[in-house]
Write a structure and sequence with these properties.
The chain has helices at residues 11-17, 72-76, 142-154, 194-205, and strands at residues 3-5, 24-27, 30-33, 45-49, 54-57, 88-97, 101-104, 119-128, 134-140, 161-169, 178-179, 186-189. It has 219 residues and is α+β, with helices and mostly antiparallel strands. β8 (119-128) and β9 form a beta hairpin.
């Protein structure tokens, strides 16, 4: 869930308490509905950190972390706002992987006398969902290099399922639909539980094809 600090004079305090990859226990915050960025099928909420919010150390959480999985069709129907600050999760089958390439990144830090273009790695690939919908994805920077290394190990070894967490929707009219966010987005080849999800969806969508493990009860 997206979180922000509501007062300028509180930003320095939270900047010193919250760091990437650190586990923290947060209490005394507010939750509010988002009116400007909202999926048509789901209300969005965000956390507001206030002067009453307390942050303390916490042990690493090993439990289940829910995902905000987005149907591919929602992107095509523009039910997910392009460029939203809310990052999304996707799971699908890899069907196409392009060659590792480079692109200009205007956001890389530079000094005022260096006017040369700054380049980072990129790799484009396509995913299919269970309904045959395809989306074009782009991994950038270090994540692109990591994706290429994983693909060299796992690619073309059968059905390749991948889970993408915290990626940004950028468009629905062709080209790249979803891209990674530097330092935030991740991916996981053959994530735990994907076989169970696929089995459930096959039974749900095609109940007559495999009902040996399904028992219906009146109640």
């Amino acid at each position: 869930m997206h979180a922000f600090v509501d007062r300028e004079d509180q930003k320095r305090r939270f900047r010193g308490l919250l760091h990437e990859e650190d586990w923290r226990s947060i209490t005394g915050f507010k939750v509010q509905l988002v009116n400007t960025e909202i999926r048509l099928t789901k209300q969005r909420k965000e956390i507001v950190l206030t002067r009453d919010t307390q942050v303390s150390n916490s042990e690493c959480f090993n439990g289940f972390i829910p995902l905000d999985l987005i149907p591919f069709g929602d992107v095509y129907r523009s039910a997910v706002q392009d460029g939203t600050s809310f990052l999304r999760d996707f799971i699908g089958q890899i069907t196409i992987v392009r060659e590792l390439d480079t692109m200009i990144d205007p956001f890389l830090p530079r000094n005022m006398w260096n006017m040369h273009n700054k380049y980072i790695s990129k790799i484009d690939f396509m995913l299919l969902d269970n309904n045959g919908n395809g989306l074009n994805f782009r991994a950038k920077g270090e994540l692109a290099d990591k994706f290429k290394r994983f693909w060299l190990c796992y690619g073309y070894t059968g059905t390749n399922i991948i889970l993408l967490t915290d990626w940004r929707v950028v468009g629905s009219d062709g080209g790249i639909n979803v891209e990674s966010v530097q330092g935030i987005s991740t991916f996981d080849f053959h994530p735990t539980g994907h076989l169970e999800v696929e089995h459930f969806e096959n039974i749900f969508l095609h109940p007559t094809s495999d009902d040996s493990d399904v028992e219906l009860m009146d109640g």
